[in-house]
Amino acid sequence: MRQIVLLRGINVGARNRIAMPQLRELLTGAGFADVRTYVQSGNVVLDSDAPPEQLADEVASHICDGLGLHIDVVARTRDELAEVVRRNPLADVAVDPKRYQVSFLSAALQEEAVRAIAALAVESERFAAIDRELYVWHPEGIARSRLWTHLAGRKLGVTATARNWRTVTALLAMAEE
User: Fold this and answer.
1) Which is nearest to 101 in space by CA: 56, 137, 125?
2) Tell me, what DSSP letter sits at residue 106?
């Protein structure tokens, strides 16, 4: 089964550096098939019959054992990622794929947490929470966004990692090849 594996917080600054050829080699050596990566931010498409939650744990364990890094990992099947793209709840406003982010969560947030996050958005930002994804439109960018700062931190209570819309659609295209 084609799956997409998203590593959180790698190759940002000097910490948690992983070269993509090294990651592909590690995961191929661990028995995963057709391992491919996209850009340097920890995006992997591979074949695995494990459920996504188990796959995420396995990949995190292999990275820890093989590279000595403790990396949070989230995984989605190809079909789940296709549904994320199909939904696209902010398509009517999110016109720049670099400023349109999807945060992939290890579990859905409670309604109270979703309301608290939505309250952080400034007037120009848009936010939608559907299942285990948070869709966020940052028309002025993420640099000064309180909403983005909260989503990028560890205060959500679940593992989360974000990708811009261009990356999300590129990963789906890779998974469909």
Assistant:
1) 137
2) S
Q: pLDDT digits over 73-126, tens only? A: 999 999 999 999 999 999 999 999 999 999 999 999 999 999 999 999 999 999
Residue type, 174: M
d(CA 46, CA 2): 6
Mark which of 79, 96, 127 sits at the end of a domain: 79
Which structural domain, as residue segments, surrounds residue 21? 2-79
Task: Tell whether 61 and 105 lie within a shared domain.
Answer: no
Q: How many domains does the chain have?
A: 2
How confident is residue 151, by pLDDT bands cut at 50, 70 and 90? Answer: confident
- In the chain, the N- to C-terminal Cα span, in Å, equals 13
Tokens coding 139 = 């028309």
My answer on whether 160 and 93 are in the same domain is yes
Q: Is residue 34 part of a domain?
A: yes
